[in-house]
Amino acid sequence: MLAVAAQKSASSPTVMRPGTPADWDYVGATWRRHYRRRCAAARRVPERLYEVEQRALIGLILSRAQVVCAVAATEPDLIVGYIVLEQPAVHWIHVKAGFRGFGLARRLAAEATGALYYTHDVEHAAALWQRLGLVLSFNPYRAWSVG
Which of 28, 91, 108, 120 could disulfide-link to 83, CB 3.0 to 4.6 Å? Predict the structure, then answer.
């Protein structure tokens, strides 16, 4: 199945489009799932508490942030990656596993020109941001602040 997704991504061009509220369920679900898997502190929070509180935080962020989605050019509802931004912070970036290695994260990160912080720390986050051409400092407090 992964090989099929990778083949499709290699042969199917992607385009960037603004995220819309119709995308929030997918964005929120993937963000919550992957953050819990990749953040040691998040894994220590009881599961029900994590789901309630992280859902609320992501909802707050999505209500005011900019989301850029990478989508299949022929299927604009097929999200293969996204970045959640609120200058001067990047809240989250995600690319579907089968679509990694084709430069989508770099294209999404290009939307974050001028960003100074990232708000959700995961294993190897600083190295990831550097590979994507961004020098960001971890600042979780930007997740709750506006402006």
Answer: 108
